[in-house]
Design goal:
- InterPro entries: Creatin/AminoP/Spt16_N (IPR029149), Creatinase/aminopeptidase-like (IPR036005), Creatinase_N (IPR000587), Pept_M24 (IPR000994), Peptidase_M24B (IPR050659).
- By secondary structure, the protein is α/β, with parallel strands linked by helices.
- The protein has a 6-stranded mixed beta sheet.
- α1 runs antiparallel to α6 and α9 packs antiparallel against α10.
């Protein structure tokens, strides 16, 4: 939401200012110092500096982008970035009234943030920081330079900020999911008898890159093995393949899993994948704005518990967006270490969920479906909703 034009007004704020201000007020934060790539990208309207897209280290230090945002004071906002980002600003100006494209490391970035806070009269304010994304040397500098300030962990507030996606974000997530799905299906069709896991992983990297996605990972199994790491293991006739790949489109994550078979699936394989699908559909049936997140989880787990495959099958669901596990957090430490703080809260329109059921069958191998859903008022919409059955290998 943009504030009305006027004296010191900023008219091109790329996020819902009223909502962010409300979340900051609830968290007791006067001014934000966002330092993670995902939160600086969000607060800058999708911008991420390409030079440090793959790594942060440079010289003796590292890249540390900082967005300074004062609650109710967008005219005091600042972006502190690398010296090369001045060219980015010339071509596509940042919305923040102040830009310091002047840094090569953590300390010069932190020092400029301190100077800006002092300039806008917030040296003694309640300052929201990201402890997991603020290097110790930068934290120490800020702590010593602003002894009157109260440094507050803003992680939860920032996660809540990103939990409800805009239409533009949903479109990027849809595109990311479609590109990953297309790439997985193309890789399954391309692979044939004798193709190794390492070769398949390299192929999906090419498929995703050629489609305009940024490849991040591929976890892949063949045959009865549950090992998802790259190896020289080769695909054999009659064996199953599970391919779980993650990549992003303009920073937004696509993360899905599909199954392949070299030949035709037998009756047992058809039955096993149907059991996985039954659990997935049970979860889907409870996805709607207003439903408690925990109710969706418990319903799917209840269906799984009654299944004959329950002893070696697991159900999991999590939020996703700019990162693979973000709000809503629906399950506690399962398997990623965080609290399921959204289990007793209603799902909201435009939240995005990853829903996955994973079977580690003792003889038939790793059988899994992972799907991406956006919550709507009346239910959900799926992204990348193709290839959810047995996909035949070697057809190209």
């Amino acid at each position: 939401m943009n504030i009305a034009p006027g004296k010191n007004a900023v008219s091109n704020i790329p996020f819902d200012q009223a909502r962010v201000d409300r979340l900051m007020e609830e968290a007791g934060i006067d001014v934000l110092l966002a330092t993670s790539k995902h939160n600086t990208q969000y607060l800058l309207g999708g911008y991420k500096f390409i030079f440090f897209a793959a790594m942060d280290a440079i010289g003796h230090s590292r890249y540390l982008p900082i967005v300074v945002y004062e609650k109710g004071g967008p005219e005091h906002a600042a972006y502190i970035g690398n010296r090369m980002e001045g060219g980015e600003h010339q071509n596509n100006p940042f919305w923040t009234p102040t830009l310091h494209a002047a840094c090569w490391g953590t300390l010069d970035a932190a020092n400029l943030a301190v100077e800006h806070l002092q300039k806008i009269g917030k040296a003694g304010a309640r300052i929201g920081i990201e402890p997991g994304f603020l290097p110790s040397d930068a934290y120490t500098l800020i702590r010593k330079a602003l002894p009157e300030a109260k440094l507050i962990d803003a992680t939860d507030m920032l996660e809540r900020m990103r939990a409800i996606k805009t239409d533009a974000e949903l479109e990027k997530l849809r595109t990311a999911s479609e590109l990953i799905t297309d790439s997985m299906l193309a890789t399954i069709a391309w692979a044939r008898e004798g193709t190794t896991k390492a070769q398949m992983i390299e192929q999906i990297r090419r498929e995703e890159t050629n489609r305009g996605a940024h490849f991040e990972y591929c976890l892949l199994t063949l045959g009865s093995s549950h090992n998802r790491a790259a190896s020289p293991q080769a695909w054999k006739k009659g064996e199953v393949l599970s391919i779980d790949s993650g990549g992003n489109y303009h920073g937004y994550i696509g993360d899905l899993c599909r199954m392949g078979i070299l030949g035709e699936p037998d009756a047992e394989l058809e039955d096993l994948l149907a059991e996985v699908e039954t659990v997935q559909q049970a979860a889907f049936s409870k996805v709607k704005a207003g439903t408690l997140g925990g109710d969706m989880i418990s319903h799917a787990e209840g269906v799984l518990k009654k299944s004959k495959v329950a002893p070696y099958t697991d159900f999991f669901a999590h939020g996703m967006g700019l990162i693979t596990h973000e709000a809503p957090f629906l399950m506690t430490n399962h398997p990623v270490a965080y609290e399921g703080t959204y289990a007793d809260k209603p799902l909201e329109k435009n939240m995005v969920l990853s829903v996955e059921t994973t079977m580690l069958h003792p003889t038939r191998g790793f059988i899994k479906l992972e799907d991406t859903l956006a919550v709507t008022e009346t239910g959900y919409v799926m992204f990348g909703d193709r290839g959810r059955g047995w996909n035949r290998g070697g057809t190209l």
